[in-house]
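Section 5: illustrative case.
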């Protein structure tokens, strides 16, 4: 049972990556009980990072590399292969990729071919990052099975937990994580773990939820899930990706820079309103974050 944090990428106001903030944030998350870091994911603004920036993120976290799943997806397969080659010098947990996206009506065969090429190039285990609502393509257990493609793991970002569980029943050895914050408790309970964006700002809550699940205290674990879901709702009002930077600063007490447009930072009033709402909400609960 693992908590995987899709780490945000901290940007400076000039749009460059704030490397010190990234290092500090990753170290803090792991110290507080996060098991693995998912680098260059959606929360890390992966599709908006250049291949050089994706490499830079791994270089910055090279000391922690055995706790890293390195996301290499790109619409240019040459870039993907270059990132896989780059990653071969690091002792990673796995590499991962979302499917090609944007282009409509890609044949199933091409989608599978993309992952077959990745698997043939990587010396590390390969995890599928399946996020149908973002990519437009569902690389389901059925599709993998239809083409006989076996991968080492999957992060399935899907509101349908049964869809994630199907990977486990079809491929019993596959590591299966669900990527929805609102299903984190259920993912810890029934899969190999959760990849949850809110673990950026609530690492201790996730750790305590995992411990509650481990000792069979589902009721307690549910109280943590409710807290996580409430924060998701607060964050979504202002744009979840931008809000996470503010939430992390509020709960962790250090600055993690901001996002990079077109993922816009919250303006001053929005940040203040979010802070007030979150602080009031957390005050009554007496939980550590
Ligand atoms: C999730 C998104 C999913 C996290 C990543 C993640 O950032 O790489 O709102 O459930 O679609 O994919 O946070 O968010 P929802 O794995």
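Designed sequence:
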């Amino acid at each position: 049972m693992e908590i995987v944090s899709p780490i945000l990428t901290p940007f400076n106001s000039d749009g460059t990556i704030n490397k010190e903030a990234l290092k500090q944030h990753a170290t803090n998350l792991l110290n507080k009980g996060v098991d693995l870091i998912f680098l260059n994911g959606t929360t890390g603004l992966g599709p908006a990072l250049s291949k050089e920036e994706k490499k830079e993120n791994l270089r910055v976290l090279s000391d922690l590399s055995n706790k890293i799943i390195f996301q290499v997806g790109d619409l240019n397969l040459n870039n993907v292969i270059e990132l896989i080659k780059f990653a071969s010098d690091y002792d990673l947990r796995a590499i991962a990729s979302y499917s090609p996206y944007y282009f409509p009506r890609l044949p199933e065969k091409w989608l599978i071919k993309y992952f077959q090429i990745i698997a043939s190039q990587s010396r590390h285990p390969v995890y599928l990052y399946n996020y149908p609502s973002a990519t437009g393509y569902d690389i389901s257990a059925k599709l993998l099975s239809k083409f006989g493609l076996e991968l080492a793991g999957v992060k399935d970002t899907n509101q349908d937990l049964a869809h994630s569980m199907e990977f486990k029943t079809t491929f019993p050895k596959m590591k299966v994580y669900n990527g929805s914050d609102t299903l984190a408790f259920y993912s810890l309970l029934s899969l190999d773990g959760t990849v949850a964006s809110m673990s950026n700002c609530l690492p201790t809550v996730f750790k305590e939820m995992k411990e509650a699940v481990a000792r069979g205290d589902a009721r307690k674990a549910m109280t943590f899930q409710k807290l996580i879901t409430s924060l998701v709702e607060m964050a979504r009002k202002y744009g979840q990706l931008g809000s996470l930077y503010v939430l992390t600063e509020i709960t962790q007490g250090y600055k993690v820079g901001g996002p990079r447009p077109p993922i816009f930072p919250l303006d001053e009033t929005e940040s203040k309103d979010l802070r007030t709402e979150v602080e009031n909400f957390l005050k009554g609960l007496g939980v550590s974050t």
